[in-house]
Design brief:
By secondary structure, the chain is an alpha/beta fold. Among the domains are: 190 residues, no CATH class; 184 residues, 3-Layer(aba) Sandwich (Rossmann fold); 146 residues, Immunoglobulin-like (Sandwich). Helix content is 35%, strand content 20%. The chain is elongated, with a radius of gyration of 29 Å. This is DUF4214 domain-containing protein. InterPro entries: Ig-like_fold. It comes from Telluria aromaticivorans.
Length: 764
């Protein structure tokens, strides 16, 4: 065994400090790693090294770096715990060189530069999942800048003084670090966990750990991060941020056994042109699309298994679909939620396709689900004939149209006229939110002259406006009115009625079949029009009766607010402006059993923008998938305190970045909350108000309709807060583990929608 005295070790520390990016020179690290495996047993130094890596780099130690520092500490008799190390830093030159080898490394300098504010802020964020208290940050900065305290010594002092929930969070992150390092301590694993891009990916993984994370969740996240590294999806480092590659995405074309043989040649052709079309729209770091044609299984549970791991799907022909009982008529209707969320365990199928689930809220179009596995659902569309005798011919014709479209989508898009028509044909004497052209403010999909809102006139006039939209090759047609599975009804004003006008005109299946439909996308905000379980349903007929490629609507009787289309416009349609497909804009936004789509969801309206574009970079990361789900762990709340975590928004792009936040968090729940049978709750999480708010039109604070503008090269700080919500029924705080989501929208074509999946814990 080679013998190293303290002088040799100090020289090694100097070489490490001034060497290339990483924890130690590669050859030296590997020699130390081999020596450790051969002659040393793990001891307390391994824990300490993980703590130092987390403190200075925000990530787990790599196996070689861990071996290097454990050996260096053991051979020199350095302390093996943080308290003693912090105490020894000021009087022991070896300890000081050891710690400074980390704090002054190229990796640390790349993360924090020479700015102690960034170093201390990152320590609190990486170690405790929260912002530093202003007075605490000021204290340490004064000690560093005026009292000449070494920044590294300040870090050690902060960690040595951590207690309570901060200490619990830090320890859990160290536990996760040990699991990760052990998992990559193989020849293949060590080669994967190397370089700034892989460091950034694993740093993000560790950022999701909080004090209540359990080992099973941590191991799952560790496995996912190693899989991402193994498939070449490490982050791609730029000058001031990292590109997060979208990775592979798979679309399932599941065809019923009865139609598999006759449709397979067309499905193979669609597979080829659809993959080419989507990959041509992805961008440099965007998704790599793969299309999979499969014969669908015969039962709902088996189809759910086929859909696991998919990004989206089209179910073609008589594929079995889940059902639920319509609470109004008592009949069975389609329920695509179990297919959109195949990992969700709330659905059971003891007797065929009828789903059994607890706490179902049948009559509401929004089914807020608080289980993270039961949201962010994929887009699942149906493609089946309007009636059994017509199905074979209709499916072949519609598949031929889809093949032609995806063979040259930008050229095909030009066949439709740019335009959006909204027909409000549902009579409400006191409509709290009448249709308003201002819903399209700040959304570049259409010019004002291309927008049409029919909100006045008699029933016949409104229905005529809708029919005109359907037959005039308009891109988007929306109808808001009463309906059933075989007709829709237009209403005009009736001063003597609060609801249900005497001025009503029906639009039947027979009338629909007599028309030549040319609209590209149709939204039917009408009850039961998408109940394709019955022959000659209105939605199925509309899709198959002409050139229409996609139809959306309700599968059952459902209530919806009169401003439903406002939410569609601002939370979904906006991203069509930047070349997104309907499948992308629908993903994660159809969390309701009452909504279904039929047709081709992979159509688009616009090409991907060219020329100077903005970039939405969040905490140094630029996501390249739509939508992106970003997990955020916040610091613990104790004694009803509010903890905050600042998100740094930067725009390294070449044009103006415009962002907007959802009006409120969604799906918020806590393990200590009194059960709510409706599944509806809010609170716990929220963005702090900023003054003044940029471009404020309405909304509260800095959310809702308010648009924040970030010029190229500029930044914006958004502070996300957490505290236990007050249960109005029990007049008490709800403690326990909280989860919830918040959504950010932007005009970045590669990153138009970010959903933050938040977690935190509130302790009494």
């Amino acid at each position: 065994m080679a013998i190293f005295d303290r002088t040799t070790l100090l020289l090694t520390m100097f070489l490490l400090w001034s060497g290339s990016v990483g924890s130690a020179p590669a050859v030296t690290q590997e020699s130390f790693a081999a020596e450790r495996r051969a002659e040393f047993k793990p001891d307390g130094h391994a824990e300490l090294v993980q703590q130092l890596y987390l403190a200075f780099f925000g990530r787990p130690a790599d196996p070689a770096g861990l071996a290097f520092y454990v050996n260096a500490m053991a051979k020199s008799g350095a302390p093996d715990d943080l308290l003693a190390l912090a105490d020894a830093y000021g009087r022991d030159s070896f300890v000081r060189a050891l710690v400074n080898g980390l704090s002054g490394s190229p990796e640390a300098r790349a993360l924090y530069g020479d700015d102690p504010t960034r170093l201390i802020a990152a320590l609190y964020r990486h170690g405790f999942n929260r912002d530093a208290e202003p007075e605490g940050l000021a204290y340490w900065l004064q000690a560093i800048q005026k009292e000449r305290l070494d920044p590294a010594e300040a870090v050690l002092s902060i960690l040595a003084g951590a207690q309570g929930s901060d200490l619990a969070t830090f320890r859990r992150k160290v536990d996760a670090s040990k699991i990760f390092t052990s998992s990559v301590d193989t020849p293949a694993g060590r080669s994967l966990y190397s370089g700034l891009g892989s460091n950034a990916l694993v740093r993000s993984m560790l950022g999701t750990v909080f004090s209540a994370s359990d080992d099973a969740d941590i191991k799952k996240d560790v496995a996912a991060s190693i899989d991402a590294l193994g498939t070449g999806h490490a982050y791609v480092m730029q000058d001031d941020f990292a590109e997060v590659p979208a990775g592979g995405r798979t679309i399932a074309l599941l065809v019923a056994a009865e139609q598999h043989a006759t449709l397979r040649p067309r499905l193979d052709a669609l597979e080829r042109v659809l993959a080419t079309d989507l990959n041509g729209r992805s961008g440099k770091h965007g998704p790599v699309w793969k299309i999979m044609v499969r014969q669908a299984s015969a039962t709902v549970p088996l189809v759910r298994e086929q859909l696991k791991g998919m990004t989206a799907a089209i179910l073609i022909g008589d594929v079995v679909v889940p059902r639920r009982v319509d609470g109004y008529y008592g009949e069975e209707v389609p329920n695509l939620e179990p297919y959109r969320n195949p990992f969700c365990t709330r659905y059971q199928f003891p007797n065929g396709p009828l789903a059994v689930e607890p706490g179902q809220w049948d009559s509401h179009i929004f089914d807020h689900n608080e289980d993270p596995a039961c949201r962010h659902g994929m887009t699942v569309s149906l493609l089946r004939g309007s009636a059994p005798l017509r199905q074979d011919a209709e499916l072949k014709a519609k598949l031929d149209q889809m093949i032609t479209y995806h063979g040259a989508s930008d050229r095909e898009n030009a066949r439709w006229s740019r335009g959006y028509t909204y027909v409000n044909a549902l009579w409400l004497k006191l409509d709290p939110q009448p249709a308003d052209i201002r819903w399209w403010d700040d959304i570049p999909l259409y010019e004002t002259s291309e927008l049409s809102i029919a909100n006045e006139g008699r029933a016949a006039d409104r229905l005529a406006a809708f029919k005109s939209c359907l037959t005039n090759s308009t891109e988007m047609c929306t109808f808001n009115g009463h309906g059933s599975r075989d007709l829709i009804v237009a209403e005009g004003p009736d001063p003597d009625s609060e609801f249900r006008s005497s001025d009503a005109v029906a639009f039947t299946i027979g009338q629909l079949r007599e028309m030549t439909l040319r609209a590209k996308f149709v939204s039917l905000e009408s009850c039961s029009t998408q109940n394709f379980l019955h022959p000659d349903s209105f939605g199925s007929t509309m899709l198959m009766a002409g050139e229409t490629l996609l139809v959306m609507g309700s599968t059952s009787v459902a209530w919806a607010a009169s401003d439903l289309d406002k939410h569609y416009i601002q939370e979904m349609y906006q991203w069509l402006s930047y070349g997104a497909t309907f499948a992308e804009v629908f993903t994660g936004k159809m969390n309701t059993p009452a909504t279904g789509i039929q047709g081709d969801p992979f159509i688009s309206l616009r090409p991907k923008p060219s020329g100077p574009q903005p970039k939405l970079v969040i905490d140094g990361l630029h996501y390249n998938v739509h939508p992106a789900v970003v997990r955020l762990a916040l610091g613990d709340s104790t004694s009803d305190s509010r903890t905050t975590r600042t998100l740094s928004i930067t725009n390294p792009g070449a044009s103006e970045l415009r962002i907007r936040l959802s009006s409120a968090p969604e799906y918020v729940t806590s393990t200590g909350r009194i059960p709510n049978p409706t599944g509806w709750s809010r609170g716990g999480f929220g963005f702090d108000r900023m003054e003044p708010a940029a471009n404020a039109r309405s909304g509260v604070g800095n959310v809702g309709d308010i648009v924040h503008v970030v010029a190229p090269g500029s930044s914006l700080q958004l502070k996300l807060g957490f505290e236990p919500e007050i249960d109005g029924l029990a007049s008490r705080r709800n403690y326990g583990i909280y989860t919830g989501t918040y959504t950010m929208y932007s005009n970045d074509p590669q990153s138009p929608r970010i959903t933050f999946e938040m977690s935190a814990i509130a302790r009494p």
